[in-house]
Design a protein that fits this description.
This protein has helices spanning 3-22, 29-101. With 106 residues, it is mainly α.
Length: 106
């Protein structure tokens, strides 16, 4: 290769490198449309995600409320069971007292 050909090849290589490094601003219309559709889908998915997160928050609050109510019901049941046990003990004591106070039948 002669000196002139080497210069031309070198210049083409330099121009090619500059073109690659500078980037390309041309976007085909089909690609632009596809990117637009994907942007719209991303926005819609973001809205759906926000809505679902709101529902999850509501459901979590409802679960916590149910757990609190369940704990209250369990405490009330335990209190009522304690009252039933006390009343049974009082009834047994009253029956025993009544039996002791009655004269024996002949």
């Amino acid at each position: 290769m002669n000196d002139k050909a080497k210069r031309i090849v070198g210049m083409l290589a330099a121009v090619g490198c500059l073109a690659v490094l500078s980037g390309c601003d041309y976007w085909p219309p089909a690609l632009q449309q596809r990117i637009g559709q994907q942007d719209t889908q991303i926005q819609n998915l973001g809205k759906e995600k926000t809505a679902l997160q709101g529902k999850v928050t509501e459901l979590t609050k409802a679960v916590d409320d149910c757990k609190a109510q369940s704990a209250q019901v369990a405490k009330a049941q335990a209190d009522l069971q304690a009252q039933v046990d006390q009343l049974k003990a009082a009834l047994e004591a009253a029956e025993a007292k009544t039996k002791k106070g009655k004269p024996a039948k002949k």
